[in-house]
Amino acid sequence: MYQQIGGKVVCVSCWDQSAQKSFAYLKKDGVVLDELRKITDRFGGIDQNKARDLGYEVLDGDVWIQQDVDILIPCALENQVTGDTAAKISGQVKLLAEGANGPTTPEADAIIKSRGIFVVPDFLANAGGVTCSYFEQVQSNQNYFWEKDDVLSRLDLKMTSAFIGVSSLARKRNLYMRDAAYVIAIDRVAQACRDRGWIS
């Protein structure tokens, strides 16, 4: 996706079932997703020898966070960005988009916030799946099923609107993005409780 919009992925990390540890695969001129998929086993592990043949450096699994990149995207595990690992984040990093649920510990979050790294918090960055589940429920309730392009268009509208809402509040009140997202989320839950007469 990033290559389609002008970006370049240079490092990915994954679990190796046979070694029972993670490895990072670095290719400075750009990771090619399709070629990695062709050398991936059923557990999602990448064949290291074939990766080397394709020009990848095979490194320890935690070095992904140390790369001199503009964007970091922790996508698989919770608590992978800790106080210790956050201190290793390159000064070049401008944005951290949390693709995993809870990938950043509170200690790491404090470091990231102090460094001024723009964060797209997990429950905003990876909410597309839950949003599409809601779309599925709507379609089932109506017994009317949308075309793929319709689903993607509706998803784009919802996710873009959510991001704009959070980033606008963050700018307006000078809030950290995570804090702005929490303010909106808690306010919506409270309003829903009021609408249902559960609280006044």
SSE map:
Blueprint: E1 11-16, E2 21-26, H1 33-37, H2 48-53, E3 57-60, E4 71-72, H3 83-86, E5 95-97, H4 106-114, E6 118-120, H5 122-125, H6 128-142, H7 148-173, H8 177-195
Keywords:
6 strands, three-stranded antiparallel beta sheet, 200 residues, alpha/beta
The rounded Rg comes to: 20 Å
Strand runs, count: 6
Order of helices and strands: EEHHEEHEHEHHHH
Q: What portion of the residues fall into strands of 2 or more residues?
A: 5-15%
Unreliably modeled segments: none
Q: pLDDT average, as an integer? A: 94
Structural class: alpha/beta
Question: What's the shape?
Answer: globular
Determine the N-to-C terminus distance.
Answer: 46 Å
Helix content: 40-55%
| Alpha plus pi helix count | 8
Largest sheet: 3 strands, antiparallel
Strand order of the largest sheet: 1-2-3
What does this structure look like?
The chain is an alpha/beta fold. The chain has a domain at 127-200. The protein has eight helices and six strands; from the N terminus they run ββααββαβαβαααα. β5 (95-97), α4 (106-114) and β6 (118-120) form a beta-alpha-beta unit. α6 packs across α7 (148-173) and α7 crosses α8 (177-195).
